[in-house]
């Protein structure tokens, strides 16, 4: 029997759903086929392993309801929207994808007796099985829903959203400190001027898409229009030039087939040790930094945690360094402009890992640091970023 393209797209999307334990069946990740997995929202399995006469397992009632609601929503989307949604899901957000706009009123559905807005339903289906409320989601700045929370339409592309990183206690410490990590901290307050950088822009693998910019070579009128500079470090060595950011957002990643931004995979360094290389391989899709009205947000696009610290994330008048762990798919307000103004009037504090620019953010890939980690100082982390903010351009 002839089957339409629309029906095929819907089936592929259903097979790409994720499981509560992080598994899935999408072609983007190479997981098991959908026939061998259960529902992403409910843990119920076919009762007692019973099967229908034709050999198919009977779905638990809630799973059957989920499938029915999902198919109903997807079948009402335009074919172009289904294509965009499938591209986003199968690439796990690695490829740019268009908004999937739906009417709030027309596509409001109910699941388990509760309202399930489209962005909540698809967010649970394809990314976060434990997602409970739309308020946990934050549109990314590249999405048409950004800044329009009460509009008549909403984007339900799950990769146009991040999940808000809630407040949490610092993670438990490791069993003991490593002697090699008990080193004197490096003063990073003037890191953009004081330390020799390893240039990578002359590498034969460099390309215009990496957009490595030397701020000192820009015209005076342009120098004042950027909102931040990004420095990339490996332990105590800065690698590459400063990357100057003018657009509202910037992607910082290891290697992608498409897209623009700061490609860390293009930066070469002689005698790079194995620990650094292993960590670099975990950067993947990296992070998205965006300048917004209330501050600077960091969205973790990789498959591993990132660790974030800034003066506005620390507890006021507290000498304990606080490093926030941000899981994949989550975002955090890495720098709060309003709080930074209050900090200008606070007494200077000596931070445990040395002084640094009060208008900066430090982000480590895959490895944490601070009082609760074996790595006491940011300079002990294999791969990390220093985001130097231009507070004159807010």
UniProtKB/TrEMBL annotation:
Pfam family, one: MH2
One of the GO biological process terms: negative regulation of SMAD protein signal transduction
Keyword Protein biosynthesis listed: no
Any one GO MF annotation of this record: co-SMAD binding
UniProt domain MH2: residue ranges: 227-394
InterPro entries (UniProt xref): Dwarfin, MAD_homology1_Dwarfin-type, MAD_homology_MH1, SMAD-like_dom_sf, SMAD_dom_Dwarfin-type, SMAD_FHA_dom_sf, SMAD_MH1_sf
MH1 domain segment(s): 36-170
SMART domains named in the record: DWA, DWB
Gene Ontology CC annotations of this record: ciliary basal body; cytosol; Golgi apparatus; heteromeric SMAD protein complex; nuclear body
Keywords in alphabetical order: Cytoplasm, Metal-binding, Nucleus, Transcription, Transcription regulation, Zinc
UniProt subcellular location: Cytoplasm; Nucleus
Family from the record: Belongs to the dwarfin/SMAD family.
Protein name: Mothers against decapentaplegic homolog
Organism: Naja naja
């Amino acid at each position: 029997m002839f089957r339409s393209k629309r029906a095929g797209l819907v089936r592929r999307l259903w097979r790409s759903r994720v499981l509560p334990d992080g598994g899935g069946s999408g072609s983007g990740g190479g997981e098991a086929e959908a026939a061998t997995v259960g529902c992403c929202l409910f843990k119920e399995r076919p009762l007692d392993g019973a099967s229908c006469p034709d050999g198919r397992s009977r779905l638990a009632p809630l799973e059957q309801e989920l499938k029915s609601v999902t198919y109903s929503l997807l079948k009402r989307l335009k074919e172009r929207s289904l294509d965009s949604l499938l591209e986003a899901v199968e690439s796990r957000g690695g490829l740019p994808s268009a908004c999937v706009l739906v009417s709030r009123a027309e596509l409001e559905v109910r699941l388990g007796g509760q309202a399930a807005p489209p962005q909540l339903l698809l967010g649970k289906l394809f990314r976060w099985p434990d997602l409970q409320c739309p308020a946990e989601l934050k549109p990314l700045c590249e999405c048409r829903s950004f800044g329009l929370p009460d509009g008549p339409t909403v984007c339900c592309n799950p990769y146009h959203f991040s999940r808000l990183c809630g407040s949490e206690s610092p993670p438990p410490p490791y069993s003991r400190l490593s002697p090699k990590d008990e080193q004197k901290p490096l003063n990073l307050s003037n890191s953009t001027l004081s330390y020799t950088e390893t240039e990578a822009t002359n590498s034969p693998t460099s390309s215009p898409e990496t957009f490595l910019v030397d701020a000192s070579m820009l015209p005076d009128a342009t120098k004042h229009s950027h909102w931040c500079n990004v420095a990339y470090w490996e332990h105590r060595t800065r690698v590459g030039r400063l990357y100057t950011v003018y657009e509202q957002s910037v992607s910082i990643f290891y290697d992608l087939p498409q897209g623009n931004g700061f490609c860390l995979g293009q930066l070469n360094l002689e005698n790079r040790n194995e620990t650094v290389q292993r960590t670099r391989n975990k950067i993947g899709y990296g992070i998205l930094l965006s300048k917004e009205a209330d501050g600077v947000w960091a969205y973790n696009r990789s498959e591993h945690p990132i660790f974030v610290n800034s003066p506005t994330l620390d507890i006021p008048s507290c000498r304990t360094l606080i490093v926030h762990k941000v899981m994949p798919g989550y975002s955090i307000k890495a720098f709060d402009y309003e709080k930074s103004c209050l900090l200008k009037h606070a007494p200077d504090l000596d931070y445990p890992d040395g002084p640094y620019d009060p208008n900066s953010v430090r982000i480590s890939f895959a490895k944490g640091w601070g009082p609760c980690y074996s790595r006491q100082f940011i300079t002990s982390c294999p791969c990390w970023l220093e985001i130097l903010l231009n507070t004159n351009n807010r």
